[in-house]
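Purpose: get a first structural picture of the assembly so the mutagenesis plan has something to point at.
Setup: two entries, given in the order below. No constraints added.
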Amino acid sequence: MFTQGDSYSQQFTVSEAVHRDFVALFGDENPLHTDEVFAKAKGFQGCVMHGNILNGFLSYFIGECMPTKDVIIHSQEIQFKNAVYMGDVLDFSATVEGFYESVNAVEFKFSFKNAASKVVAKGKIQIGLLQ
Amino acid sequence: MFTQGDSYSQQFTVSEAVHRDFVALFGDENPLHTDEVFAKAKGFQGCVMHGNILNGFLSYFIGECMPTKDVIIHSQEIQFKNAVYMGDVLDFSATVEGFYESVNAVEFKFSFKNAASKVVAKGKIQIGLLQ
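Result (structure tokens, whole complex):
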């Protein structure tokens, strides 16, 4: 079902609604994310979107886009490399780095790129296959 | 402002509203998270809450609970060790592992424990201090 080198790709949009609902859900109103004047004073082009919105997209990717629903996330790591702004359409891609059949685990490498093809985040995610 | 060994603790509740709003926001309706019969057939006590809800709590922790608002997340890693269920009240604790003044970075080690003091997730998070 999984083979090393298998790749997946998808687009995710950090819309105003996603940002608003994320703030409402988790209560992270840090001014970097909510105050344009603050964010610009810190050298950004505008409010920086929460990195953990991207982790929410990963939840969807694993939960909904695998060839099976019998999956659970074991671990994740993510590095934030460039700022994501409101309205950014992100090209997500993930590749199977390893499929460990004896322990029913699959490891993916992934990246999110913005419209300028700049990597905004990258990392790894390991899932287990439920029996 | 940060010293190695500084510790923070806090409670987070995975309420029905948090679960519902997370599903609505990111669209991860995997049956493990939404179908009790499926989850039980896989050996769990009930629907398993999305691990990335915990990453949302981390967003709040960094964005709102630091001694300064001038912060940005550089990287995160998390390992999911035990299932989280609807209504679980999680004891979160984080400790400063290192403060790297020359690069304005702080590294935390964290864990989430359930009411039975079982670690449900643990990991590391590195932040930068904005100038």
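The helical segments of chain B are 16-26, 31-34, 36-41, 51-64.
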